[in-house]
Amino acid sequence: MTNGPHVTRRMAIAGSAALAGACSMRLGDNFTACDTHPLDYPTVQAVVRFGEMLTERSGGKFGLSMYAGGQLGNERDTLEITSFGGIDFNRVNLAPLNSIEPLTTVAALPFIFESTQHMRSTLDGPIGEEILASLEQHNLIGLCFYDSGARSFYNTRGPIRTPEDMKGLKLRVPGSDLFVAMVKSLGADAVPMPLDEVYQSLAQGVIDGAENNWPSFEQGRHFEVARFYSLTRHLLAPEVFVMSKQSWDKLSPEEQAIVRQSAKDSVPIMRQLWDAQVARSQEVIMASGVEVNEVDPAAFTDRMKGMWAEFITTPDQRRLVDAILANRQGG
Ligand code: GTR
After folding, report:
1. Which CATH number is 151-235+290-323 given?
2. In what order do the strands lie in the sheet containing 228-235?
3. Does the pLDDT value for residue 108 go beyond 50?
4. CATH code that applies to domain 5-149+237-282
5. Which residues surround ligand 1 with Cβ inside 6 Å?
6. What is the reported pTM?
């Protein structure tokens, strides 16, 4: 994993990582992996387990250094560095990939998956494979999807029951046009912002709220400031684990097979960790006295589905949307 501009970038990364130090986990010398979440978050732990499998299956040739907690930067920036080969492995949400590859938007549409089971079975099959493969032209090798639960809105003002309650609220979203349009369709103001700025912005009143799953709401400590969590469950957009194509191209076919298989084998591990984390986060949030409420689902579904047409514009996107809908149990 050397030579050319790659070395320069890698050295820069190694330098900043050495400074940041604190929550990196060293398993070997070869590959770098990063994640925006803390070390004990399910995505991070799944990639650590992936690294262990890699070491074992390569007879000790490969190892992984995990830089968690956003040490190497926000998802948009680290994705770019990954595509240049400066980071070998990266775990991100689909959101920052939406502006890079249109097929990723399909799995990030609000209310496209009717359940976790629907999301898992769709992404475990040919539709998931096609979305992962579409990343290669952007110099990323899509290895697997991880769960990200359901995203719902939380805020500092009061419970949201219908879109009318969202009028005028300033809500943080990840940097994705789809997310911006989604929040606008509900009558609120969308503020694109990296995840690591959300706590401070909530505390200072720069934003009124955001949207995320139980574990991110809890692990980012956002629940300490935003005391209302309204269960819209609008998105089941998954996480995705990618490798730099530059790093991939340096591996033999046998080594590539080990990487692919180890990533696939980390998926059931992640799902187990995820389900347990959701339960733990839910407990912490409820115990802290956050007011959690159900919403009027139809009002949200109607508005958010109205924006699908704006983002589903190519025949390939339409084909995938139809295939996902055909895969529903509930029709
Ligand atoms: C989390 C996700 C992160 C990041 C974050 C966000 O649920 O795991 O990858 O996308 O949301 O909202 O920025």
Report:
1. 3.40.190.170
2. 189-192, 170-173, 209-212, 151-155, 228-235, 291-294
3. yes
4. 3.40.190.170
5. 36, 75, 92-93, 95, 148, 174, 195, 212-213, 216, 239
6. 0.91
